[in-house]
Structure formats: C-alpha cells, structure tokens
Amino acid sequence: MIRRILLTVLMVAVVTGGLVFAGGQAEESAAPASEADSSQETAAALERTPDDPRLYTPGKLTVATGDPVYPPWMLNNDPAGGEGFENGIIYALAEEMGFDYDDVVWVTQTFDQGIAPGPKPYDFAIQQYSVTEPRKEFVDFSTVYYQPDKAVIALAGSGLSNAQSFDDLREARWGATIGTTDLDYLENTIGIDDVAVYDDQIGTFQALLAQQIDGTVQAVPTALYATAVQVPEAEIAAILPSDPSDLGHGLVFSKGSPMVPWVNDSLQTIIDRGVIEELNQQYLVGGADIPEITE
C-alpha cells in the first residue's frame, strides 16, 4: 500500500500561621481571619490570568525544552524565534492564556529530566514527549496535541525497502536509542527480540552508517529531518502504524500540577480553532510516496 505523506521540515497562595515556641508551649500566630480570607479571594481572582499565583513565575509562562532543538519541531535552534511546529503551538497557547509574546520564558533541560519524578522549575515542558501509562506514574500530561506514525529509517537501497509485512521486518537487524518509545515499538509492536540499544540518537545513526544494523524507527517528522540532514545516506523505507502504547505527544507537568486544567482548556481551544492543524500543514511537510506496512 502506498500512502502520500503530507508532513513539513511549533500560589493558589497558602496562608498559614507560624509556630512560636515559648516556655515549651507552641502558640500559633495567624493573620486575622478577615486578612486570610481577603488574601485567598485575591489569589482566586487571579487564577487563569497571567498573574496567576500558581505559575512558576507569576506574570510569565515558563516552558522547558531541549538544547539543541531540531526542525521541524523548532527551527534555527531558537525556541523563542517562534518558527516551528512545537514553539508555534506554545506561542498560540500563550496568547490564548492571555500572555504577551515576550512573557514566554524558555528554559532548557535534558529529555529524561522532563519525565523524571519531582518538582520542575517551570510550568510545563514540550519536546515530543509521548504520553504513556508508565510515564503517567511520575508526571502529568496535557491533552495530546499530535499523534505521529512511525517511519522505518534504513540506508538507501537496503533490503528493508522491499519489506511488506512485520514478518519481513523481523528478518532485519534493528537498533534504537535507550529509553525511547522507538525501542518499545520495535520490541513490543513489531516483535523484535534482539534490538541493539544505543545511548543516544547519534550512536544509533553511526551504527546504521557502519551497517551494524539495518534500520531504526522514529516518528515520521523526526525521520524526515534525520534523512534530510543528519543521515542523508539513509531514507524512509516504510511508514508503520502509530504505536498503540504511545497515546501521542503531550505537554509534561510536575505530578499534581494545578496548571493542567487551565492549560488543557486553552490547548483544546486552539485545537478546535484549527491552529495546530495549520501548523502541521506549515511545518510537517514532505511529498514522497512511501510504502505503508500495517501488519
């Protein structure tokens, strides 16, 4: 089966009384009830505004991503430039939430830091994070904003170009980067028993170029960039179904973040307006006829 790819290379404040110890006895010092009530009312009135006290820095929307960042997700290695699929989403989302362009603050982190347990020094992160049930144990996710298919990356003219089924794919030698949904996909969806595992994407591509493996898999937009820029000796040999254990890409929050409902409502609004589909058409583009393997 041949499919035409059309893709482009985006404090509620808590008032507590302190404890003052005198003569072995603890006395609670608290603000008068009227002051506490007033403070709580003020905080509540600011919710879902740029001055929301629940923001990491009230007045700013603080967003984490990787360093470097890559097309088509973000162009020119510049999240603040606003050009790209994922930073385009962030600036549309920020506007919907009431923030000015300059109120978006970008911070950097590694991919693994974003899905590690514990508090985060930002409001949320974006970096093609796949929503999975195991990850939900440690972090919270937004509504899914994009569901990519998988692409087979192989050297041009390799035997994988003629693969027509999962059975054919199982005959090849595969590699993937540790900790990724790509590795899970090869093992659990295609059924590869002996995937070679590498520390990073560069190591996986080096193994491919050295012909130590026959292929790897990645999300289609990432594969388009990889075969155009990172490993031009390779090609997308086939398109595979979406990962059934990968619910799609979502924003990542600290577990229990009170920001999730507000962000989700705003994100759904820009999805419903067609903003993300427009960004999809603008930044996630190809134009080649590529075989599709469905089972």
Q: Can you put this structure into words, describing what you see?
A:
The chain has 295 residues and is of the alpha/beta class. It folds into two domains: 2-9 and 55-146 and 247-291, Periplasmic binding protein-like II (D-Maltodextrin-Binding Protein, domain 2); 150-240, Periplasmic binding protein-like II (D-Maltodextrin-Binding Protein, domain 2, 3-Layer(aba) Sandwich), CATH 3.40.190.10. It contains nine helices and 14 strands. It has helices at 33-46, 85-97, 111-114, 166-169, 181-190, 201-209, 220-230, 260-272, 275-283, and strands at 2-4, 18-22, 25-29, 61-65, 104-108, 124-125, 139-141, 150-155, 175-177, 196-198, 215-219, 234-240, 252-254, 289-291. The strands form six sheets. The chain has a three-stranded parallel β-sheet, covered by helices on one side. Strands 11-8-12 form a three-stranded antiparallel β-sheet. Strands 1-14 form a two-stranded antiparallel ribbon. It starts with a strand and ends with a strand.
